[in-house]
Amino acid sequence: MPAESNGLAYARSNRARFVAELIEFVRFASVSAGPKHARDISNCAAWLAAQLRRVGLDRVQVLPTRGAPIVYADWLHAPGRPTVLIYGHYDVQPADPISEWQSPPFEPVVRGDNLFGRGAADDKGQMFTHVKAAECLLRTSGLLPVNIKCLFEGEEEIGSTNLPDFVQRHSKTLKADVAVLSDTRMLAADRPVITESLRGALSLELELRGPAHDLHSGNFGGCVHNPLQVLSGIIARLHDRDGRLTIPGFYDRVRSMTPEQRAYMAKVGPSDAEILSDAGAERGWGERGYSLYERSTVRPALSVNGISGGYQGPGVKAVIPARASAKLNFRLVPDQNPHEIDQLFRAYVRRISPLTVRLAIRTELATQPAMVDRRHPGVTAAVEAYKRGFGNAPVFLRSGGSIPVVNLFQKILAIPTVLMGFALPDDRLHAPNEKFHLPNFFNGIATSMHFLTELARIGLDAFPDHRDTPLSLCVHNGEAAR
Amino acid sequence: MPAESNGLAYARSNRARFVAELIEFVRFASVSAGPKHARDISNCAAWLAAQLRRVGLDRVQVLPTRGAPIVYADWLHAPGRPTVLIYGHYDVQPADPISEWQSPPFEPVVRGDNLFGRGAADDKGQMFTHVKAAECLLRTSGLLPVNIKCLFEGEEEIGSTNLPDFVQRHSKTLKADVAVLSDTRMLAADRPVITESLRGALSLELELRGPAHDLHSGNFGGCVHNPLQVLSGIIARLHDRDGRLTIPGFYDRVRSMTPEQRAYMAKVGPSDAEILSDAGAERGWGERGYSLYERSTVRPALSVNGISGGYQGPGVKAVIPARASAKLNFRLVPDQNPHEIDQLFRAYVRRISPLTVRLAIRTELATQPAMVDRRHPGVTAAVEAYKRGFGNAPVFLRSGGSIPVVNLFQKILAIPTVLMGFALPDDRLHAPNEKFHLPNFFNGIATSMHFLTELARIGLDAFPDHRDTPLSLCVHNGEAAR
Q1: Each residue of A407-422: b (16+ CB within 10 Å) or e?
Q2: H helices within B96-178, ranges in order?
Q3: B217 and A316: CB-CB below 8 Å?
Q4: List of chain B residues whose C-beta atoms are within 8 Å of the C-beta of residue A223
Q5: Which of B158, B235, B296 is closest, CB to CB, to A220?
Q6: B31, B302, B307: which to substitute to probe chain A, counting the most A Cβ within 10 Å?
């Protein structure tokens, strides 16, 4: 494949400029949380659009939304070949606590093999691999092996608020055979990873109201039920002694792993000790009979994200609070449905709540679990691309997190998303001193070129007709619950 | 008693000014919790001292402590007559939640018969009755019927931190035959009450630490024990289904009430319905076999005053918090000892805590339960004073609250404290929209004048020699626990 080897040579001889351009990109303080950086966001989007034009993509557009603009570009001159939707995000997490940064978060610098700066890995550096891959191929052969559509949003870190509406409205424009997203982690610089499953999420707020107003716990202690005590009792009754959720029916749709799947997970996944070390915890906890890796990826879980009620300041305030609330976060696995779990949770909590309090439950967020089939041509292309880009075949890992855009593409565009990450475990995503490992940047660019080339080699015929058999692409799907 | 009737006439013709002065007093945001209001505290103390000088008291002093200053004044020109120590506190509870106040907490206003503002009843309005009573008598006759010593502190709401040391160091100056404290409630505006027993208090903070830092509940949910969940479990296990505390040995020293005592309580005390109405609660709760009045006065109790941990802002933050804490408040009855209960609690909680968290328990406050003998001349004078000030004899009630100063005066000065309260059940002490019923303010001023006059009539000889028989005055006493 001469086009590809010319592209690889071009990439090697332009490394210094690519790093310089990535530094320009990271220099924008494109923080999406809060309105403070709205100008940085729009400047960053404009810079990115200019990059895409310079690279040689067509129809480069900065499209306004109610929030941050979406940058779109495509190159569609490979008729009869697959079309890849490349998704990424140019917004970043807030940089605080600033004082903990060794160098200012928005003055990116290279130290050793790493580029330090907020967003260097999440997601600017990772998404930029695909932009530079397109440049390498277009500048050396004038062509790409497949059609590509780039969709770069600016609100990922605040929940992609305006993306669902955008994708819905532009579903024809965005039509593709597979999506690719580079915003996940590898195990090490020579151990690439394809994330093959994500847990769904269901976030709820539980509020209890007791007495009409706060009471003095001297005067009323012992004769009025305390909402914080009731809340504690409810939360305590959500798990049994074996670390399992007690909500009737909760596990009914949980898909069992086969012995082969469990053996593969045990072989390639992190050990209990590695997970505890990452967590900074001395001991594990959870559902009996499963490894910590299994508990946090293929088994569902419920976390209390916060409890609020009563006096929380210094010293003593003798109060029985009128209200208490808890933020709860379920993580769900195939084939659990967030909407159904929501109903089961509500029914159970209503049943175990005493009559001494009034109960309100609000659903804040619901995301389906997602899996990508290893046999999908997009995945087999990614495996081959990693082999050639990093010199090693990737392992398939499962993630305990949720990436709503994966569900969105499945639901609206009926395509799976290949999670082809280039970040390292110590890249400190969302934390001070975030960095991106530059060898991964260069290998990522090569991997992206191989990915496009391999998709062309596999050919469009290998892709399932997703209008007829959507479920064969992404095993689990369903209506997003409210 | 012409001095007294002149004083009463003076009080009637100065009502408007007295209310205006009380408004000035309540306007100081003299919140003792936290350092934020230190200047309001000292301004309030200075204002109070100026009041006492204007009233005509001697030796008015603002005495510094390590915390809020203590305001002292006396009038000792009645040799051979009893000496009354008038105690009160000019500090107030925090006003939060501010948004629930109908009018700003520190911009006191009169609506109908009530003065609304933080501290209007607790304790500024109630202590001010005695200040104004002294003014009425001194301005009309130039004399008081007995000797008085005023001790007004600014740290009552945070546990009177510096008062014990102060009373110890000034025990000779503070020597008196009886103390009076107006910081308790009546049953209704025409149903006065002398509080004859108080519960002890034990406040603790329970803190749990889990992972070294906050974790993402997607990545780690299900494999690391969540401190908020553990905390909920511990709190849930502190009570059984019958509303009793589960701490082994907790009830061992609880004194049983005689059938006569229970019959008197049932006759004069509030009904379950009245207590629920006061609480703004639909249903009662607590230890089976006791009325709500008994549960909240002669039976011990544990309240959760606050829980803190994790994310409490708007929306969703998927976090497993590194720490969680709860503020707990025991109320104890004779003959429970706070120090012993502290030990029993610590042993039990350590036993039921899992190894997945590190536990820390801090004792914030410990107060003995207390009782006052109905036959003491200070009590009989108060009975007579109420009859004349409010037109009805008082009943003897038991309080669920704790007043550490009662223990302190008993222990160091060997005198009982007459609890002659003027607050009403709906005055919302410690809660938003606290108020003071102005007819009670006026009748309280009259009652205070009658009280001083009646003590003079009873005469010094009727007072027991408290050095020989301290236990006949205050039934329960003991070392203050740490």
Answers
A1: bbbbbebbbbbbbbbb
A2: 126-141, 163-169
A3: no
A4: 275, 279, 284-286, 292-293, 295-296, 301
A5: B296
A6: B307
Placement of tokens 């497949």 in the chain = A146
- Rounded-to-integer distance, Cα B363 and Cα B347, Å: 14
Q: Using the beta-carbon criterion (under 8 Å), do A229 and B235 form an inter-chain contact?
A: yes
Query: Beta-carbon neighbour count of residue B470 at 10 Å?
Result: 16
Instruction: From residue A220, give the alpha-carbon distance in Å to each of A308, B93, B331.
Output: 21, 17, 10
Percent of chain B beyond pLDDT 70?
A: 96
pLDDT (tens digit per residue) in B322-339: 999 999 999 999 999 999
CB B246 within 8 A of CB B378: no
Look at residues B309, B303, B297 and name the one whose alpha carbon lies nearest to residue B369.
B297
Q: State the fold for domain B200-254+300-363.
A: Alpha-Beta Plaits (3.30.70)
Looking at the DSSP assignment, which residues form a beta bridge with residue B109? Answer: B116
Low-confidence spans in chain A with pLDDT less than 70 = 1, 465-482
**A303, A322, A355: residue with CB nearest B283:** A355
Which residues in B lie closer than 8 A to residue A159 (C-beta atoms)?
A: 316
**Domain A2-198+369-472: top CATH class:** alpha beta
Out of A299, A316, A400, closest to residue B327 by CB: A316
**At CB < 8 A and 24+ separation, what contacts does B13-22 make?**
B14/B136, B15/B442, B18/B128, B18/B132, B18/B441, B18/B442, B18/B445, B19/B110, B19/B115, B19/B438, B19/B441, B21/B51, B21/B128, B21/B132, B22/B108, B22/B115, B22/B120, B22/B124, B22/B125, B22/B128, B22/B436, B22/B441
Is A329 in contact with B316 (Cβ distance < 8 A)? yes
pLDDT of residue B1: 58
Kind and range of the H or E run holding B279: helix B272-279
Q: B2-198+369-473 and B200-254+300-363: same fold?
A: no
Q: CA of A400: which chain B residue's CA is closest?
A: B219
Phi, psi angles (nearest 5°) of residue A357: -130, 155
A221–B100 CB contact, under 8 Å: no
Mean pLDDT on B129-137: 98
Test mutation, B223, B237, B240, B364, chain A, max A CBs within 10 A: B223
For position B479, what pLDDT does the model report? 30
Class for the domain spanning A200-254+300-365: alpha beta
Using a CB-CB cut-off of 8 Å, the residues of chain A touching B239 are 229
Q: Average pLDDT of B92-96?
A: 94
Break chain B into its structural domains and give their ranges: 2-198+369-473, 200-254+300-363
* Contact by Cβ (8 Å): A204, A338: no
pLDDT-based confidence at residue B466 (cuts at 50, 70, 90): very low
Q: Please state whether beta strands A147-153 and A83-89 pair in parallel, antiparallel, or not at all (unpaired).
A: parallel
- Per-residue pLDDT reduced to its tens digit, B155-195: 999 888 899 999 999 999 999 999 999 999 898 999 999 99
**pTM of the full predicted structure?**
0.82
**Best of A223, A237, A331, A419 to mutate (most B CBs within 10 Å, chain B):** A223
Please tell me whether residue A308 adopts helix, strand or coil conformation: strand
The residue among B215, B87, B230 whose CA lies nearest residue B160 is: B87
More confident residue, A111 or B373: A111
Question: What residues in A contact B199, CB-CB < 8 Å?
Answer: 218
* pLDDT single digits (tens) A343-392: 999 999 999 999 999 999 999 989 899 999 999 999 999 999 999 999 99
Query: Is CATH 3.40.630.10 correct for B2-198+369-473?
Result: yes
Residue-level pLDDT at B195: 94
φ/ψ of residue B331, rounded to 5: -120, 130
Q: Rounded CA gap, A38 and A171, in Å? A: 27
